[in-house]
Design brief:
7 helices, binds alpha-D-glucopyranuronic acid
Amino acid sequence: MRREIAINESWAFLGPDGQEQTVNLPHTWNGADGQDGGNDYWRGTCTYSRTFPAPETADGERAYLEFRGVNASAAVELNGTAVGTHDGGYSTFRWDVTNLLKPENALTVRVDNSVNDRVYPQKADFTFYGGIYRDVLLRVVPAEHFDLDTFGGEGLKVTPTVQGKDGAVRVETFHGVAGAEVRVHLLDADGNAVAEGTGTDVTLTIPDVRLWDGVKDPYLYAAEAALVRDGVELDKVSARFGVRSFRVDPDKGFFLNGRLYPLHGVSRHQDWKGIGNAITKEHHRRDMELIREIGANTIRLAHYQHDQYFYDLCDEYGMVVWAEIPYISEHMPNGRENAVSQMKELITQNYNHPCIVCWGVSNEITISTKDNKDMLDNHRVLNNLCHELDPTRFTTLACYAICAPFNPVAHITDVVSWNLYLGWYVPGLFLNDLWMNFFHFRYPKRALGYSEYGCEAMPNLHSSHPRRGDHTEEYQCIYNEYMLKCFERHPFLWATHLWNMFDFAADARDQGGEPGMNHKGVVTFDRKIKKDSFYLYKAWWSGEPFVHICGSRYRDRPEHLTEVKVYTNQPKVALYLNGERIEEKTGEKVFAFQVPLHGETKLEARAGECSDACTLRYVETPNPAYTLPKKSGKSANWV
Ligand code: GCU
């Protein structure tokens, strides 16, 4: 029988300081210096080593050594013998090490995140944390087993399609075992068999299939495949899957299971404060909990392959996912092999996830591209590769704001999205409407999405006169109020993805306030504070009744009449001042009140059964703590 043995504990880590320490996985050596600005986090080669006893094996069982995330390049040695190398910091890789095993084994992994010109990413607005930051495990499998040697796949490919009221589920399995047959069972969520068949490429029907229907009903089946010879089961492999249909209409947007399903959601980076990418399942669950609370129905998992566990959560909670490789910011003539390899791994390892509907080929690749011809050719190679490996999903890319709409790179993939910060990096929120209208008018048959939009806000910065670039919560609210209404005016967009759900680290940044950070999240880096804008999105996207008073952190106000905004998904809000009801408003999502302020003032907002409260106070002079501090001078341009 298959079994897994995690080997995450007690690694001897030889770090940048040349000192050896004992660490447990997940681990990164850039958890601190990758988040403090200056673009000076340590990049180079560090070594992890440990011993482990050979797993007990019988009847010729094989032992695979599997790594689920090592950034960025790994060289693995077992008992003094080179096992192999891997380039790419975000995917699973493994080797059969059975023949190298001794009763006690010495494993050494050299991990390199240094600058180079062939492994993506090399230039981007996020920290490339070095380390073994996901699980390492020994996988013991039967002597004769399904394929585990192809781009980190599991030897099982499930392709479900909707056929009328039924599901047609193609199950392909891969093995090299002579004289064996493959028996396939499809199981419903309760484990009841709903179909069965035999063969390495068999299509089974699920009558009256229950669809995977997004956040409403993300129903999951499972496919089980058994390798059998002379009635004896040699190996078994399984995968969950969901039956759904989807398409993009350039005029109407995204359709799921035949009905219009406007995709409104967020992007997510995987790093957390203090620990970088070395996060646990608890951190993944917390991120999903917050994304569900805001009411998103789609997630752009930028800018790289995420942990399998998070794609599983997206399957379970019905999130439509944009998955992508880190072919980003700068096209490298020597990077083609790696971009192709990362795309093969991304698709092979994630093909069975019903949440994924598209493969992202690149992000803002025109920022620093010298060889346009090679870059365009690389896009065609990747686009064709996606279609060849997976004809069921469409391809997309995220274009740089300054990439002209007629740039050929924007016309290779099946659909296109743009990263546009009109109203943040450049003045003029109205330009978003102009841009969308122009593109749709000029290219009416080309489906357009917004892969990024957003603006910075720090929960400690406030102003009664918010303006672009001040990093206040108040400006972030103004910006997002406009953008949500703007998208409502342009329903042809195939998807919108807010940049970003969470603040994240970009060590090259220094905008003042907190070097090394990108504060475009609607939730802080430690996931402890939901900024006011979080509640604006919740008012638009979530049905869970709530009411939120904005500006509760803008406590000291140098004015006797101040604006207090309230976000809610309820139709009516009453505002109480020191216990007295001063006003009730009927409206939608955003309610603005003018509130007299003398001394300390307790405010309470009530909407239906919900309420929220805060205390403000009048001050003579503005609180300097609310203004963006000067840059630290540690700045460095990441572009
Ligand atoms: C770009 C880029 C992101 C970056 C964002 C920003 O669009 O794709 O990775 O973080 O801009 O400037 O915040």
